[in-house]
Amino acid sequence: MLEDALRYPWTGEQKVETILIGGVLSLLGVFFIPALFMYGYLVRVIRAVSAGDDEVPPVFDDWGDLFIEGVVAFLISLVYSLVPLVVIGLAIASFVLPASVVTTTGGEPAPGLSIIGILFALVVVTVTVVGSLGAVYLLPAAVAAYAVTGRVGAAFSPGTLRAIGGSQTYAVAWLVAVAIAIGAQVVGGLASVTVVGAVLIPFLSFYGNVAGAYAIGTAVREVPALASESGTPTAGSVA
Question: pTM of the entire structure?
Fold first, then answer.
């Protein structure tokens, strides 16, 4: 899967044009709007690969649909990013609790409440770590669920997420995507020592994102729960 994923972006007659456009969008992503088009393109990659069209990457066209799907994918990502943030907020609040304990008549902190606060903090920290990792693990599955079904609700369906996330193929694909992302960061860091290399960083980033989307797409097409719902989705459908 790793070898196929790395090869995938560099195929097709319009590979150079596609990578150039994607790299420019990545470079301009700091202005937000261009990043939405890139989000939409990655949704299109996952959909195409999950449908078996995995020989050549899709091209940048139908920019209106690309933008709408990018907005939806971004909102899905935003919701999943809020999950660990909320838990982290609870964790921070729990650390304040031991310092805000009720004092005894002698002015000393009540030891029982202090211990309870510390134990609560440890529990919340553990939940924060687990919740954050869970959100990071399920986010590609959620975007893939939307890409395949065309329904925003599928990105938050417990049954759909369980079917995808519980798949061994998806677990492997997720690891492959993470490895590619890390590799792209490392290569980009090494390339940044030269001016020419620094210019190539957004293009390397886009290449890595497409390769990762390919890996996720190959995994979700084997999930029966999605196969029964797949079709020709409409951009931004909320059914």
Answer: 0.82
